[in-house]
Amino acid sequence: MGVEVSTRGVTKRFGSQTIWQDVSLTLPSGEVSALLGPSGTGKSVFLKSLIGLLKPEEGSIFIDGVDITQCSHKELYEIRKLFGVLFQDGALFGSMDLYDNVAFPLREHTKKSESEIRQIVMEKLDLTGLIGAENKLPGEISGGMRKRAGLARALVLDPQIILVDEPDSGLDPVRTAYLSQLLIDINAQIDATILIVTHNISLARTVPDNIGMLFRRGLVMMGPREVLLTSDEPVVRQFINGRRLGPIGMSEEKDDAQIAQEQAMVDAGHSDGGAEEITGIIPQIRATPGMPERKAVARRRERVREIMHTLPAEAQAAIQVSLEESEDAGTYYTGDPDTEVIPVVSAAAGR
After folding, report:
1. In the predicted structure, residue 7 carries a pLDDT above the cut 90
2. How far is CA 20 from CA 23, 37, 52, in A?
3. Which of 45, 188, 230, 244 could lock onto 291 through a cystine, CB 3.0 to 4.6 A?
4. For the chain, which domains are there?
5. Sequence-separated (6 or more) residues with CB below 8 Å from residue 126
6. What pTM did the predictor assign?
7. Signed CA dihedral, 327, 307, 350, 225: sign only
């Protein structure tokens, strides 16, 4: 099972520029979490800080209870073995075929024999749907295959924590859906703690158990998916619905005058350039039939029930319907592009 990851009061600066400050959050063990935010909010910087590639100026980062900001290089090296990382571009070695790319961590960090390495590599290539492509070079395959090869390499050391940086970068929606399903299936099989850094709205709505959002150099909120998807926080609603109206601007946050002017235009009948607002909870992608049941789902639902009474009435109604629908096991979106789109579970449905 994956381990818990948490930060307490973490601040990161580059020179005089503060990227984010006083960020405190917890990634529950064995669950899939997503960190959202507009471009330039430091999501990838946060991911690199979790693995110790960047050190924060203030605060603590705990990996399975160990504060890595206080670790020696040797201790940090050992903790990093808990991680598997999928970088935006896959970060494959261009001169190595896929087999050798995936085998590289095993050869570098273990003393396994080549026969043992082959068994592990072929298992991970099979898991990511790359059997038959093991002798191809990264330049000979599609972007989606490179992503999957990067994921296979991230899995060979059986990590307890998997960090995924912008999994949809360079991929079309269909390939993104397949990769999203693969991450859910991996969580079902190994119960790893997974953090996905993304600004993909569709992925954010349907994949993670928990969602956090960075904006204005801080953490807006972090919690179970049901809580964020029913939030009335303006920046969250704007981002989740991909709308122009709200605090997020083209390059930075808007001032109050600009927000008021845009609201006046909408009130006058002008479109704000976004899609129709979604006010309910889209069902989460489920593991592929035949996979083990994801233990993360039950753990998250229990946390949601514990905090339900603290939420606004409309959010409680939407969440209650969502929990009942998911437990009744109706038809669910699975991430398969051939699956029919299903209705949104909304607060109105519970009235």
Report:
1. yes
2. 7, 12, 16
3. 188
4. 5-226 (3.40.50.300), 231-267 (no CATH), 295-350 (no CATH)
5. none
6. 0.83
7. negative
The phi-psi region of residue 226 (left if phi > 0; otherwise alpha if psi is between -120 and 50; otherwise beta) is alpha
Contact (CB, 8 A) for 187 and 294: yes
* C-alpha–C-alpha distance, residues 319 and 311, integer Å: 10
Beta strands 17-27; 5-14: pairing state: antiparallel
User: What length does the chain have?
Assistant: 351
Which pLDDT tens digit goes with each residue over 223-234? 999 998 998 888
Residues 192, 167, 177, 123, Cα dihedral to 10°: -50
Query: Rounded to an integer, what distance in angstroms lies between the CA atom of residue 318 and that of residue 320?
Result: 6
Give the containing element (helix H, strand E) for 33.
strand 32-36
Cα distance between residue 229 and residue 196, in whole Å: 17
CA dist 208 and 28 (Å) reads 12
Residue found under tokens 């489920």: 286
